[in-house]
Amino acid sequence: MRRTACLDRTPCPPRRKIPLYKIFPELYNGFTMNKRALDTQLKFGIPKGSLQEATVRMFKKAGFTINIGSRSYFPSIDDEEISPFLLRAQEMARYVADGALDCGITGRDWTIESGRDVTKVCELIYGKQGLRPVRWVLAVPNDSKIRKPEDLQGKRIATELVNATKEYFKNKKVNADIEFSWGATEAKVGAGLVDGIVELTETGASLKANNLRIVDTICESTTLIIANKSSWKNSWKREKIENIALLLQGAILAEEKVGLKMNVEAKNVNKIIAILPAIKNPTVSQLSKDGWCAIETIIDEAVVRNLIPKLKQNGAQGIIEYPLNKVIY
Questions:
Q1: Domain ranges across the chain
Q2: What is d(CA 45, CA 91) in angstroms, rounded to the nearest whole number?
């Protein structure tokens, strides 16, 4: 090892590599860190941007409270074993693959686009506006003569999802000029800077508002939990990630369901059960009052408004509807 000379011309001792957690302790959420602490800390990436609010809400339903400051990239969480970091979904796979993060939440689209090798832990079907997959669509102005992807031969297309778009047109045997867009993609095609765009949409409302027409769907995407390959081999970290995934999946499943319970005379039980569209067979228990039972079940929230009047008409009493935080099978 080469040594530099000190002021008195004698060789200086070799420099020691200082761990990052000692140089930047704020990166580790203010916890006192040593090697043992790092081994029992899960560095978890929270997506910044469109998924941020929905993700924080899902964590809350799963039992975790995340607080994010207006200018902070280091959220706090009420679990000392988790060290969260706020990061754009587009960058998540890169930092997880490189080991800067143990795991994170991002889209399947950005994971594929990055080309990084990560473990896909589970799918979480939620987005900015609802519980459905999102789509990357090929769109053009309403008055464009372009009707099919092949009409874009030799044309210019702007998108953030460059690699997936190139693969799509390659499979179509269409030679188009695909350029990366830093933002305001919908405005570029409206201004005539490009001939078409590939843009993310949940409902299509924004495209319609910008006088754009969908030509085709490039791909669909859902939210994923991804993990670093080495972290996934660590038994403690893997169990922690799997537990978080289980609770988040339960929270998402509960989003569109409610609990329903009621009192029913024994003679009407079979009639009431026949009306209930339960996930599983409803729970029926004997009440202290002879000849009466309590029925409890979980159903889709969308059917409750039509169901309750029918239950009442068929003898159900004391009907209570209540929200659910998690549903885990």
A1: 20-131+223-253, 134-221, 257-323
A2: 10
